[in-house]
Automatic annotation (TrEMBL):
InterPro entries: Leu-rich_rpt (IPR001611), Leu-rich_rpt_typical-subtyp (IPR003591), LRR_dom_sf (IPR032675), LRR_domain-containing (IPR050216). Gene3D superfamilies: Ribonuclease Inhibitor. One of its GO terms (cellular component) is cytoplasm. This is Leucine-rich repeat-containing protein 57. The keyword Metal-binding does not apply. It comes from the Eukaryota. It holds the Pfam family LRR_8. Keywords: Leucine-rich repeat, Repeat.
């Protein structure tokens, strides 16, 4: 099995035995009642897409950094309050953390080797919670931060913003 979709089923837990789905590339389990995930999921070595939006996750799953083929991670609409240091090892190109309760973010997010899209809309971030290194020295070319505890226009004065805008603009030009 390569794709597994279990959206909107009131699922409150997933079994450790799911780690035996060694060929699984896409797991979608949105709109359920998951509050945590088994550490054994770190063994889903072929996983490319993980969509867990609209659950009850309160912690960023630390085992995500063990999944080296991961491209897209959607943890939006959960209860995550902090993005921990281990995020720096995440290999995904897109990380969606919209509509959580994030007030703290490790500067290690800037170390993600492939991260290009980081969505942090409608969280509890202050402007000083956005790491300077993320703006100045990362691969992120789309940083979505609308709906946090600062005015978007104030971001323009933050150190590293010009470097971020160069990446953002270069990406937009490539699209046309």
């Amino acid at each position: 099995m390569k794709h597994l979709t279990m959206n909107n089923n009131k699922i409150s837990s997933l079994p450790d035995s799911m780690c035996k789905l060694s060929k699984l590339e896409s797991l979608q389990c949105s709109g359920n009642q998951l509050s945590k995930l088994p550490e054994s999921f770190s063994q889903l070595s072929n996983l490319r897409t993980l969509v867990l939006s609209g659950n009850r996750l309160s912690a960023f799953p630390r085992w995500l950094s063990a999944l080296k083929h991961l491209d897209v991670v959607d943890l939006s609409r959960n209860r995550i309050a902090e993005v921990p240091d281990c995020v720096g090892d995440l290999t995904a190109t897109e990380l969606n953390l919209n509509q959580n309760q994030i007030s703290m973010m490790s500067e290690n997010v800037a170390n993600c080797p492939r991260l290009k899209v980081l969505r942090l809309e409608e969280n509890c971030l202050q402007l000083n919670s956005i790491p300077t290194k993320l703006l100045a020295d990362s691969r992120v070319s789309l940083l979505a931060v609308e709906g946090n505890l600062f005015e978007l226009k104030d971001m323009q004065d933050k150190e590293g913003y010009e470097a971020y805008m160069e990446r953002y603009t270069a990406t937009k030009i490539k699209m046309f």
